[in-house]
Write a structure and sequence with these properties.
This protein has three domains: 203 residues, Glycerol uptake facilitator protein; 73 residues, GMP Synthetase, Chain A, domain 3 (2-Layer Sandwich); 126 residues, no CATH class. The radius of gyration is 38 Å and the shape is flat. 61% of the residues lie in helices and 12% in strands. With 495 residues, the protein is α/β, with parallel strands linked by helices. The chain contains 16 helices and eight strands.
């Protein structure tokens, strides 16, 4: 009886585990909803870089170069979104995965065409630009690490998985941004323009890491989803191909691993230097202005620039011994550089700062006084502008006369606008003289030149002959001026 209960309990546990495993595999199943032939057709369709694709690629490279040159991430993201670089890379991974040699050769050709066009475009830009300084966005793409490879890995997975669905998702733009293929190529162009092998070499390596990893993940997903092979491949050749691909990818990743470790060591070392400076150097009597760590071939050297009281000579050996206890700083030599500031220099600097502050305060007060004066002028003009631009009764008679003379005339209107020029474009004051209840003021501290402009708005019926309206309007303007004995300038505006 007990054995039966044990078997039932064991069977129940096994079934629960099986159900849990089935649920788990169902959640992570990639094969459901896969459109294999549609995916192949879609990737192959956009492999070729020619015609409009070339112009899109050139535009993307130029936009990316401008963004890198101006240190503008938003512009760089825009370039990544329109760049067609992903297509030949996906084509390489797909062709290897389905053993399609024709598509593989086509993808490789267009891959190098895209590289050449992008680099030449950015090279041209950075050879001509008046800026061309090494911005943060440029330098950040010259030392690829294993983390960049991981971004490309998961970006490539997202790209091919999203592209293989029968119901397409919106993941592709995100993949284009995450994998960042265009900016490294443009950085290569910058490095070539400046003749700096360290910059163009590091950027080219970053690009090839991204490209290789994306192609590799495409190959893995295509094999996992069992896309139909175009040509038969025997098991031996299949194993050799897999081995060669894995070996090539591993060789590509090895330098990035070393770069990552060096980057992590540098970050840890810098943090330790900061802790040393904060704990052992800074005090109420002295402060470190800055520090430099020079990691030379034979020796490491930490230079600290100090202001305030000098360290007594007998305490420096103790500081050096303390420095050796910090990780990554065991073999570093310490050099303290005292930046002396005399009492006279301090007083002179304080006096200069005080003078500058007083000067700024005086300028602000003067500008405020000018603003008050200009505002007073505006208020006076506002009171004047509230009077009708043209006597309303006389204007109604004028409108009837003009309608009798020009049957095509639909309506006339009158208003006044107060304009002011503060020596900056578009800084104006507006008042609607028909409503007479709204005013918009944008004053500037510069002197303003204000004038009142009378506006006569004219509206013609739709059936009016458009070729004759300009001539009509000249006659109407002349008639208004004579009829109303109107000596002030006014504008006749069609609406």
């Amino acid at each position: 009886m007990a054995d039966n209960n044990n078997r039932k309990s064991s069977g129940s546990l096994t079934q629960r585990l099986k159900d849990a495993w089935d649920w788990f595999t169902h959640i992570f199943d990639l094969r459901e909803g896969t459109d294999k032939q549609g995916t192949i057709d879609s990737i192959v369709k956009y492999i070729q870089i020619k015609g409009y694709n070339v112009w899109i690629l050139i535009s993307a490279a130029m936009i990316a170069a401008i963004g890198l040159d101006n240190n503008a991430p938003a512009i760089i993201i825009g370039a990544m979104l329109i760049s067609p670089l992903m297509s030949p890379i996906l084509g390489i991974g797909l062709a290897i995965g389905i053993n399609d040699r024709e598509t593989l050769w086509l993808s490789i050709q267009n891959f190098f065409i895209a590289i050449t066009v992008s680099i030449l475009t950015s090279l041209l830009y950075f050879s001509l630009t008046p800026l061309g300084s090494p911005t943060h966005e440029l330098l950040s793409r010259t030392q690829p690490t294993l983390l960049d490879a991981l971004v490309a890995l998961f970006g490539g997975i997202a790209g091919i998985v999203a592209g293989s669905r029968s119901d397409k998702t919106n993941a592709i733009p995100g993949v284009a941004i995450a994998t960042a293929l265009m900016p490294p190529l443009c950085t290569v162009g910058y490095g070539l323009a400046k003749g700096n092998p360290a910059i163009w070499g590091g950027a080219l390596y970053l690009f090839f890491i991204n490209a290789v990893i994306i192609a590799f993940t495409t190959y893995l997903v295509v094999r996992y989803l069992k896309f139909p092979l175009k040509e038969y491949v025997n098991p031996s050749d299949k194993r050799k191909t897999t081995f060669y691909i894995g070996a090539f990818v591993s060789l590509m990743l090895i330098p990035s691993i070393f770069i990552l470790f060096n980057t992590l060591n540098r970050i840890a070392r810098d943090n330790n230097v900061k802790n040393f400076v904060a704990t052992e150097i800074n005090s109420e009597k002295r402060e470190a202005l800055q520090w430099k760590f020079n990691d030379l071939d034979t020796i490491a050297e930490l230079k600290i620039y100090l202001v305030g009281e000098s360290f007594p000579m007998d305490t420096i050996p103790t500081l050096e011994a303390t420095l050796q206890k910090y990780p990554n700083l065991e073999n570093a030599e310490l050099e303290l550089i005292q930046v002396d500031v005399s009492q006279e220099e301090k007083e002179r600097m304080t006096s200069e700062i005080t003078d500058e502050v007083n000067k700024v305060v005086f300028e602000v007060q003067s500008q405020l006084q000018e603003q008050k004066t200009e505002l007073a002028k505006i208020v006076n003009l506002q009171n004047k502008i509230r009077k009708p631009a043209i006597d309303s009764l006389e204007f109604q008679v004028l409108q009837k006369e003009l309608k009798a003379m020009y049957p095509e005339l639909n309506r006339l209107g009158a208003s006044r606008m107060l304009e002011t020029d503060f020596a900056m474009p578009n800084d104006t004051v507006y008042l609607d003289s028909l409503n007479r209840d709204s005013i918009r003021l944008v004053p500037q501290p510069n002197k303003a030149v204000m004038k009142m402009v009378n506006i006569i708005s004219i509206n013609w019926k739709p059936e009016a002959d458009s070729t004759r309206l300009q001539d009509y309007e000249k006659r109407v303007a002349s008639y208004i001026k004579v009829r109303l004995k109107y000596n002030e300038d006014f504008r006749l505006v069609r609406y």
